């Protein structure tokens, strides 16, 4: 991460929340660093019970496979998804890989909202919002 950790994390959080608020008032978001360690986790005031776990699972899945979760689901297809059974993996849309300007994977985002149809664009909005910090 660029800059001082404390100040950078608070700015990263503010930017990510601002972008997510444009999609939903009910969300959870996890951000992992380049080593797959939880860097930031935050949520809105009201969430659905499954959102907390799903956001982290989506970020970990994007890290583990080095790809966005919706793209993974497309590539694996139904039989491939059935073969990849893990309580930690989640192939629903909303897991995204954030890359540096050079194209190197630098961070991973997982977003879960009350409306799964907006999880993918919401995750990409967070990736865009926090890209300048990596």
Give a short synopsis of this structure.
The protein contains 4 helices and 4 strands.
Can you offer a commentary on this structure?
The protein has 134 residues and is an alpha+beta fold. The chain has one domain (5-133): Beta-Lactamase. 44% of the residues lie in helices and 19% in strands. The protein has helices at 5-21, 51-65, 69-83, 119-130, and strands spanning 27-32, 38-43, 95-99, 105-113. The protein is globular and about 40 Å long.
Secondary structure class reads: alpha+beta
State the distance separating the first and last CA atoms.
5 Å
* Proportion in β-strands: 15-25%
Q: Which H/E pattern describes the elements?
A: HEEHHEEH
Total separate domains: 1
Helices and strands, with pairings:
Blueprint: H1 5-21, E1 27-32, E2 38-43, H2 51-65, H3 69-83, E3 95-99, E4 105-113, H4 119-130
Antiparallel strand pairs: 1-2, 1-4, 3-4
Helix pairs in contact: 1-4
Looking at this protein, list some descriptive labels.
alpha+beta; 134 residues; 4 helices; Beta-Lactamase; 19% strand; single chain; globular; 4-stranded antiparallel β-sheet
